[in-house]
Amino acid sequence: MRFFPKHCFVFPVILRVPPCYSFDVKENFRYFDSASTTTLPLMKSTKPTIVVLGSGFGGYSFLRTIKTDLFNVVAVSPRNHFLFTPLLPSTTVGTIEFRSIIESIRVACPEVTFYQASARSVDSERSVITCEGAPGRQPFELPYDILIITVGAKSNTFGIEGVQEHALFLKEVSDARAIRQRIIECFEQAAQPTTSPEERRKLLHFVVVGGGPTGVEFAAEMYDFLDEDLRKSYPRLAGEVSITLLEAGGQILNTFDEELSAYTLRLFQRQRINVRTGSLVTRLERDAIILKGGETIPYGLVVWSTGIGPTEFTATQLFPRDHGKIITDGFFLVKGFQNMYALGDCATIEGNPLPATSQVAQQEGYYLGRTLNRKQRGKPLQPFRYRHYGMLAYVGSGRALADLTNFKGKGFTTWIFWRSAYITKLVSLKNKMLVLFDWFKTFVFGRDISRF
């Protein structure tokens, strides 16, 4: 019975995703060089130009909704793809491959003009956004009639010494790749004949800081990787591996129902994942964590997942902010501006703060796209209303949690629901097929442990 829930493979129904509405505005721009920037001034056009900053859930859902027969649409993002972050922890151990959960903006929305660049500043008087393609490259300016800010957030280090230098985060594909490489590196170093027992225990100690959904799911995926693959490949080391989850608060998964949180704690105890609540990290060194009170914990890998903070762009611009987030009204119009909108993790509705989750950002993106379509057609508008569909989390050993409005579920059946729900939420048929194939491949052949 233990084998079945760990290795069962589920084939849910695949839903077809509607095509992305888009428009090519390249013919509407002319190029000229100035002393310090390349400016792309807008030529005469009957359609207003929308510049979208970001390609996360908010930005991507907006691009899929906005009607390009009504607007010229330009997208700017430091990454040229959309990332389905709910499945990102699965890529850290090879349950799912990296490219299976990303979708190219250029492919999904081929007629939207896209620039892979980072927004640096906004000149609201001139209605111009300054962008930089890469460090050291010449900046360029984009004029806009409407600006959509959906730049997301970054991992919050809370100013703790050493975190930025020594911890690994889990926000992007590059982060997941670094974690995956580091896990195998720790095992290979520990397997060396010259490695001392003390050094081996340190290398094989994997620490997760933060007991939210991301931290819990990574710990669960790490346990599955150890139990199903690494024990076979490194039989002499398996007994020395340890996983520790540090949470500064009183419980893990504090946004979930208390019964589901307690279930996860009991399951982790059976999996020998050491959960330590009330553990506040004060400093991070190259090979050790220092807790409040002076306790030192050696480690081979630390994954930092303690919440989010504002990006450099959000923090440095003259926007009205509340706890680092841009303040908007119920239509996502930035307070004090008439042609600037903000949504997703970088923004908050004044008097109605919402959780920083993918489903919130996705609903906001769809809403704003439809609202601007209606506004351009002269139709009446309604403020945003969020619909909470619940939360899901994987907790290892073929078990998952579902904290829905009318249902609280846990265990193997919920794991089937978890996989089915995420398959239907993936944005393209290609992604659905790739993820299904990855799950099948992991079931048959196991996870890849190569390092290259």
What does the model show?
With 452 residues, this protein is an alpha/beta fold. It has two domains: 203 residues, FAD/NAD(P)-binding domain (3-Layer(bba) Sandwich), CATH 3.50.50; 202 residues, 3-Layer(bba) Sandwich (FAD/NAD(P)-binding domain). It contains 13 helices and 27 strands. The radius of gyration is 23 Å and the shape is globular. The chain starts with a helix and ends in a 7-residue tail after the last helix.
In summary, what is this structure?
The chain is of the alpha/beta class. It has helices at residues 3-7, 57-65, 88-91, 105-108, 163-166, 173-190, 197-203, 213-233, 258-270, 312-316, 358-376, 412-425, 429-445; strands at 32-33, 38-39, 49-53, 72-77, 81-83, 102-104, 113-116, 118-123, 128-132, 140-143, 146-149, 154-155, 205-209, 242-247, 273-277, 281-284, 288-291, 296-298, 301-304, 308-309, 321-322, 325-328, 340-342, 347-349, 391-396, 399-403, 408-411. 31% of the residues lie in helices and 23% in strands.
How would you summarize the topology of this molecule?
Elements: H1 3-7, E1 32-33, E2 38-39, E3 49-53, H2 57-65, E4 72-77, E5 81-83, H3 88-91, E6 102-104, H4 105-108, E7 113-116, E8 118-123, E9 128-132, E10 140-143, E11 146-149, E12 154-155, H5 163-166, H6 173-190, H7 197-203, E13 205-209, H8 213-233, E14 242-247, H9 258-270, E15 273-277, E16 281-284, E17 288-291, E18 296-298, E19 301-304, E20 308-309, H10 312-316, E21 321-322, E22 325-328, E23 340-342, E24 347-349, H11 358-376, E25 391-396, E26 399-403, E27 408-411, H12 412-425, H13 429-445
Parallel strand pairs: 2-10, 3-4, 3-11, 4-7, 11-23, 13-14, 13-19, 14-15, 22-24
Antiparallel strand pairs: 1-2, 5-6, 8-9, 9-10, 12-20, 16-17, 17-18, 21-22, 25-26, 26-27
